[in-house]
Amino acid sequence: MVKHITHATLLILLAASAVGAQQTGAPKQLLLPGSINATAGSVGALEPGNEIGSATIEQGVAPWQRGAISLVGFVDLTLRADSQGYVWNNTTPYVAGVKLVAAGSFGVLQAAAGVAGDLHSSYQGDVTRATYLSYWTAWQRAVNSRFPGNVWATSGTVTPREPGNWITAAHVEQGVTAWRHRAVAVVPFAGVTGGTDTEGYSWNNRGLLDGGVKVVTSIKGTVVHVGVAQRVDRAWNGGPTRSAPVWFVNLWTGWTPRVLR
Q: Which residues lie below 8 Å from residue 42, measured CB to CB, with a gap of 6+?
């Protein structure tokens, strides 16, 4: 029954977006923003010897825009798996809903509401509500600058496997371009990530400190980061501080085509 509800929800959202584009009152131009974000690498001291990979694809429809603000109906789907077969790392979560997006020189701010579920065979739960705020900004693209960096933060109920648990996480990173040739840059960097939640789960209440070096390039709008780092892991509940080397590959690409009525 849950699977039927899930699939019906996704189809209704997609159908409503398509119908809205065809209605007489629809805007002359309809934006179809989407993106793919993929990452692979080692987890570090929290899960020694474990490698994990994930890919998220999101497609949206923006029937209304005014200046830097837009209303977007969206569906995103994530495929996640690891080398150790842990249940919490082998998931297929999705979120479908609407969000208000403000984008400009200040970054990207989003407020979203909808439903979340998990299509993986190991998930036995129901479709849950999803509500979150997120923010992202970056300064000076790594390929073209000496001091690239970025900040992101997210806060809300985002995973169906922890329904009702309000999770907040934030990250800040600063790099220095040591070498650059055309579209390739070598960037030593340091980054800090921290998180907390309302349920007090140890895996959400911890901090990470990364220091390492990465190669950054941009290929036809697709940004790729490949690097290694030493990661220090500290739980907020006073657990031991652990450290381990990690490797990572990150890829991001996005699109925003315009469709005429």
A: 49, 50, 51, 52, 244, 245, 246, 247, 248
Residues 40 and 27: their CA atoms lie apart, in Å, by: 39
Q: According to DSSP H, which parts of the chain are helical?
A: 2-22
**pTM for this structure?**
0.85
Alpha-carbon distance values, 76 to 55, 80, 91, 99 (Å): 10, 13, 14, 12
Secondary structure of residue 258 in the 3-state scheme:
strand
CATH fold, domain 2-255, is Porin (2.40.160)
The CA-atom distances, in angstroms, between 153 and each of 2, 64, 83, 122, 232 are 31, 25, 28, 29, 20
The label of the residue with tokens 């650059």 reads 180
Q: Residue 163's CB: how many other CB atoms inside 10 A?
A: 14
pLDDT, mean of residues 217-232? 95
pLDDT of 127 above 80: yes
| Neighbouring C-alpha atoms within 13 Å toward the C-beta of 15 | 6
Rounded CA-CA distance 178/39 in Å is: 24
Amino acid identity for residue 37 in this structure: N
Q: How far apart are CA 70 and CA 184, in angstroms?
A: 33
The domain locations on the chain are: 2-255
- Interior angle at CA 102, CA 195 and CA 104, nearest 5: 100
The answer to whether residues 188 and 215 touch, using CB atoms and an 8 Å cutoff, is no
* Per-chain mean pLDDT for the chain: 89
Nearest to 227 by CA among 260, 182, 178, 193: 178
